[in-house]
Write a structure and sequence with these properties.
homodimer, 374 residues, alpha+beta, 6-stranded mixed sheet, 5-stranded antiparallel sheet, 9 helices, 32% helix
């Protein structure tokens, strides 16, 4: 869970970017969470609505949420919580998103009558909610939030560690259950169950579950594909747990791997180590990519590595920095990144492995501890 | 899956409401799906972006989607698909939602240069996307879509039946696995696994999983609460599967139920039958509510029934008609509704049962077939 101190620090940091503004209006659920700890889960009715976080020029912070989200407001680190009734079980409910814009209108009338300069999430704020702001211009919070999100605070790191620990349970379940004759979907179900149990709460499970011929095509969601003896299967698990993502991968073999398969994995292990060796503040994303690619190319598999060497990790997926050939983004302390070398051969199969890392002042700390290897 | 014919019929029906308009711009994922069959799942990267459906005055229909969603566009029943590259694995990706608004701007410039009258989803369309429309006014598609959604088309009913069939597998798993000593979370995992297997695809599992003392408080997501012998447990399963929701409930007992518990369930069975007996076109939602409440009140449990008697079901949850005391909504053929009588006694426990129904020209057809009863 995000802490009071963390939320306050992030709100202050955001306000540094908007010192002349008398209202910052946040509408994206992940950003309301980032700045207040108020989490609306897509597995609950709270996650289907539209809520708002309002920060005034003095830093006073108000959460506006509908009554389906009331239970979740208990964990909101804000100065005021305003609950409006969307559905009272007595009268028909109005369209939920439109009603949220009307609730915002009433709140603005009551508490923010004289606005001069406001900033909003232009790429998210619905038109109906924009229209109730009695100002000509609305600046964009988006770039500042995107920039801020790279440097993770301590409470965010605690969330990410918790998400990774749950995802590690998923990899253990994959290792325990893989065998010839099982389907990708069966393994997905086992992995999802293990992660849900480890997380202790319902989650939205995203990931690649691709076996046999499908493993040679990078990834994809699980299908009814039945594993054959000797098939490789890629498990790339990127669930969102408690608001943050883990993103860790491994490849397993249904049965005894061949020497060729072991050699293939060894190339990826070397690529992972080569990437790790570059991780420190000041290095460019392109340098990390080049280092991670080198062992794969040296093994003659350069054409079999079609994707990034990794990417930033946090509230979204993927996010900056992008570890790709044309990126001049510079790694900085507080970045959390993945490294995920992979190599895929059509008709033969493919593999990917992945760890998550915190960039520190002096180098890096590996955050994930699942067992890598077939 | 939604059919070509169904999507075309719905687009024509929507255009009936906007005959003077030269562009209808749809942005909510569930409405893009409703009108085109293009489904972006929250369990996939496609579900994290912002895509658009554009229908011009002649009915020509264009889907604008980012490259993470390309695979899903294969199932889109549209005249044109335009894919724009959000992330190429070579360069850092821009903020995804903001980039989508820019992609829309380019598309409008190329294909819809002269717009006079447009309609958008005002409660959803992000401000940044609104701003690229070179028109002074934008009318609201929201009310027309909300009205249309009540009368389900044949292809929608097929989707709902499929979702219900998967949810029924969840109830069977609950019945098989319930016992004293297991936790609500363990049962959630079993139910989720059964539904995922039956659906054949990853899903977002929503539902109430409340046992013992918690069952006396209506519901809530699963916890580590350990079931005690004789505990009641409410299973209210409302997953979204293939774009549509099922919503079916039952209550089970961990061990042998008492006569008092059986009597409690019998009251709810009577309430369900009383509600069913009213289901036909022309009846008001309030009448259905009153009929469903009567047996509960007659048993002295009127105060133990705090919620609606049911509600509409489809792309969202809950949705019109709302079967509540103050609703004058009139049932019509093509409505799909739930009936869900419940009674909850603090400190003793509670129960809820629920079926789904299609309102037909002459009455109703029950859509769900799970076993009701402790």
């Amino acid at each position: 869970m995000l802490t009071v101190d963390g939320c306050l620090a992030r709100r202050r940091a955001l306000q540094e970017h908007f010192q002349e503004h008398d209202l910052l209006l946040i509408s994206q659920p992940q950003h309301i969470f980032y700045l207040s700890g108020f989490l609306t889960r897509p597995t609950e009715l709270a996650g289907q609505g539209l809520n708002f976080l309002l920060i005034d020029g003095a830093g006073e912070c108000r959460l506006l949420a509908d009554n389906m989200s009331e239970a979740a407001t208990q964990h909101a680190h804000v100065d005021h919580v305003d609950i409006w009734t969307w559905y009272d079980s007595m009268h028909p409910a109005e369209a939920r998103l439109a009603a949220a814009a009307e609730a915002l209108s009433r709140l603005l009338y009551n508490h923010y009558a004289k606005l001069a300069q406001v900033a909003v999430e232009r790429a998210h704020l619905p038109l109906a909610a924009r229209e109730v702001l009695a100002v000509a211009q609305a600046d964009d919070l988006g770039p500042a939030l995107r920039q801020m999100r790279r440097r993770k605070y301590e409470d965010e790191l605690a969330c990410i560690r918790r998400a990774i620990a749950a995802a590690e349970a998923g990899h253990q379940a994959a290792r325990t259950n893989i065998r010839a004759g099982i389907t990708e979907m069966d393994l997905y179900v086992e992995v999802q169950a293990a992660i849900t149990r480890a997380a202790g709460e319902p989650i939205v499970m995203m990931g690649d579950f691709a076996a046999g011929e499908r493993s040679g095509r990078v990834g994809g969601p699980p299908t009814d594909n039945v594993l054959q003896p000797g098939d490789l299967m890629i498990f790339d698990l990127f669930p969102r747990i408690g608001g943050y993502r883990a993103d860790i991968a491994n490849t397993l073999c249904a049965g005894q791997p061949t020497q060729e398969q072991r050699d293939h994995l060894a190339v990826l292990q070397a690529a992972l180590q080569a990437g790790e060796a570059t991780l420190r503040p000041g290095v460019t994303a392109a340098e990390v990519y080049a280092a991670g690619r080198e062992p794969i190319a040296a093994a003659g598999l350069g054409d079999a590595f079609p994707h990034h060497a990794g990417h930033g990790l946090g509230l979204g997926h993927p996010e900056p920095p992008f570890l790709v050939p044309e990126s001049q983004e510079i790694l900085q302390a507080g970045d959390v990144v993945t490294l995920e070398p992979g190599a895929y051969r059509r008709g033969w199969g493919g593999a990917r492995i992945e760890h998550n890392y915190l960039i520190t002042e002096t180098g890096y700390q590996r955050l994930s501890n699942h067992q890598i290897g077939l």
